[in-house]
Amino acid sequence: MFDFLEDYDLLGAFWTTVQLAVLSAVGSLIWGTLLAAMRVGPVPLMRGFGTAYVNTVRNIPLTVIILFTSLGLNQTLGISLGADDFETINFRLAVLGLILYTSAFVCEALRSGINTVPVGQAEAARALGLSFNQVLGLVVLPQAFRSSVGPLANVLIALIKNTTVAAAIGVAEAALLMKEMIENEAQLLLISAIIAFGFVVLTLPTGLFLGWVGKKVAVKR
Amino acid sequence: MSSVLYDAQGPRAKRRNVIFTVVFLLALAALLWWVFSTLDDKGQLEWALWKPFFTGTEAWTTYIWPGLQNTLKAAVLAVIIALPLGAVLGIARLSDHAWVRVPAGIVVEFFRAIPVLVLMIFGLALFAEYTDVSSDDRPLYAVVTGLVLYNASVLAEIVRAGILSLPKGQSEAAMAIGLRKNQLMRLVLLPQAVTAMLPAIVSQLVVIVKDTALGGAVLTFPELLASANTMSGYYGANVIASFTVVAVLFIALNFALTSFASWLEARLRRSKRSTGAVLGAEDVDDINAAEVGGPHKTDGV
């Protein structure tokens, strides 16, 4: 019953999914933090840019972004992100698309963390005579990070599920393999169950663990 | 201007802000110039490539409007079918009987943990193998099936969170006057929860509209994104122009929905007649991420 699996690289496909998720997670954490810094900072132009970026990107389907990286950036404008072969190019383009999209949500998660810190905390710190850096580093950010863990975990789980969109530009990850297997084998329910199980294994423990961490570090108010 | 992060600004901070603004403006200008010159180099700014969208209506009536119609059709069908399913699952998850609560919980958590695309691919093969739906209709059926399976479980969580967000006094008062569990749910909790859930449901529509694009890219469902592909083939490889138009349409549609949801949320929060319990866009983000144990309550109700 499971014989046909030997013809397919199931673990390899899920490994690609994991790679997509990890690389995009790191990238979007960096770009998302920068965006959040712009959005909450004192410079009006940067605030405007951050807001415009988030509102635009959140409202475009990820599929449009990823398809555009391949058809628009690569095939029309000739951007190949330093790779030569088709597979590497598409993998990197997919990571780029996922980063551009996910960072908007990372930015919002961080900002919601900052918003949970009551203004009184910073006012009290200033009244004690702490400098700007001390207020930020000792009082506000420690509290903000703790309440960002839960929302950031949610973004990560959504990202793991979103890596399947890379199938639209032919990255050999789990959803593309599923499509290929279904076309070639008459084992629809079994194949779907295996792929679904793979995603449950990836998302559920991540959610349980980070949810537990989030509750543990959360600031009680 | 004072926020939790910085105080009202003095002369030095104002000077620093001006410097930041100038530097950022230069960086932004450099980026725009790079985009412009790359597009120009590849001849993507030629009027001929953009003309179909600005002169004549052929591009709009032949490609964009039918695509948009399919996008809306799939989204509306999905939400109409998913809402009752979600309501049943959500209420079942709150049941006092473990044999109802546990299976409903498993179904909801399972479908929230799986990518929509996987559900859509499954749906396509399912309809091809076990039904006689014609191959033209199959992509629509598959897209709607995938969307329904996923969003019914998300809506179930919205319903559950909506009922849980109501003040405890509501059910206590209802029980004190002797209502049955059925009456409590039907007459007291659900009517209030539906109001509280409205903004969240509208926000979920944005997610649904965005996910229909998957059908266009992977399942050959002729929706808005797929029409961009067809157009760029027909009008001489105007990929940039076609994608820009389609992206702008998606943004406009979703921005309208998002704004409507926030308006609704603000209105419900202000309203004196309700209990003040509202589920907003942030709760929906949490629920979509399949976080176990329901959404966090950020604002204490």
From TrEMBL, chain A:
PROSITE patterns: ABC_TM1. It is found in: Cell membrane. Keywords: Amino-acid transport, Cell membrane, Membrane, Transmembrane, Transmembrane helix, Transport. InterPro entries: AA_ABC_transptr_permease_3TM, ArtM/GltK/GlnP/TcyL/YhdX-like, MetI-like, MetI-like_sf. Residues 14-210 form the ABC transmembrane type-1 domain. The chain crosses the membrane at residues 12-38, 59-83, 89-107, 151-176, 188-213. It is a multi-pass membrane protein. It holds the Pfam family BPD_transp_1. Signal peptide: none annotated. Its main location: membrane. Coiled coil: none annotated. CDD domains: TM_PBP2. Belongs to the binding-protein-dependent transport system permease family. HisMQ subfamily. This is Glutamate transport system permease protein. It comes from Streptomyces thermodiastaticus.
UniProtKB/TrEMBL annotation, chain B:
Keywords: Cell membrane, Membrane, Transmembrane, Transmembrane helix, Transport. It is found in: Cell membrane. The keyword Protein biosynthesis does not apply. It holds the Pfam family BPD_transp_1. This is Glutamate transport system permease protein. The chain crosses the membrane at residues 18-36, 74-94, 106-128, 140-166, 187-209, 239-264. Gene3D superfamilies: MetI-like (1.10.3720.10). Coiled coil: none annotated. Belongs to the binding-protein-dependent transport system permease family. It is a multi-pass membrane protein. It comes from the Bacteria. SUPFAM superfamilies: MetI-like. InterPro entries: AA_ABC_transptr_permease_3TM (IPR010065), ArtM/GltK/GlnP/TcyL/YhdX-like (IPR043429), MetI-like (IPR000515), MetI-like_sf (IPR035906). Residues 68-261 form the ABC transmembrane type-1 domain. Its main location: membrane.
